[in-house]
Amino acid sequence: MNVEITPNYSYIFDFENEFIHQDTRVWMVKNWTYVFYYCGIYMAVIFGGQYYMQNRPRYELRGLLAIWNTLLAMFSIMGACRTAPELVHVLRHYGLFHSVCVPSFIEHDRVSGFWTWLFVLSKLPELGDTLFIVLRKQPLIFLHWYHHITVLMYSWFSYTEYTASARWFIVMNYCVHSVMYSYYALRALNFKPPRSIAMLITTLQLTQMVVGCAINIWAHGFLQTAGKNSCNISEMNIKLSIAMYFSYFVLFARFFYKTYLSTNARKGKRPIQVTASATATSGHQYTSVSSSSSSINNMNGKADIQSLLASQNVNKVKAQ
To answer: pTM of the full predicted structure?
Structure first.
């Protein structure tokens, strides 16, 4: 391990020390395109699942949801603790250019490299977040599933290139998910964290999108000034990444406004439940119009029954 480039870890696990990045890259180069099949299956399952659940009662799954979110929270916290030191070390000793253009976090740092590999792989099981939304019959918004499939595809593609700027994206994602899944776990366990925490999570994600766009702009500038051989990121990757991060920013900003700043939000028509999602508070459950409509229909139904009974009584009186 190159001590000059890597931070001085207080402890390195055997499974981290045995990580060989070349093997994982070969595997990903051969198999990354399978991600398109995974995304296709994912889309079929979630929308087919919604159709299947239309006329069926929702599953509660609170215990399973608590376990799921707790495991993801622990994984994210561990990932943040094992990758953030490398980014801080590089920024302090080598500067912004190295952090954006040199993939030493994979090639020279086995600890950060191992957790980078796990990060990329974890985007596949994280699709399971959506199953809880479908089975619990909660609103599935575009931001949720769009975020899941694009992050999965981009992460797997970027690993084949050893995209240097990915160290920023990985550390930010691990850190935000540490807070987010911890929040979801508490909610699933019937704790009631203040609403400000949900607002903080969305704010952190908006910040993540702004920083992501900035990193791509810097990467583009470094490519122009230092040359393609000096900065390990492709023009295609920059275009995909900035398009992805900008679209996330727009969607999250819209969600933030509707949830916390709109007239309805100020009047108290706020989300009543938060569900697990890779997109922070994008899994909020709203008091739906359909629920209101069903209540109105129930009231109307009761009124119709009462009218029918009244008319029957009148007819009985007339018959007598």
So the answer is: 0.82
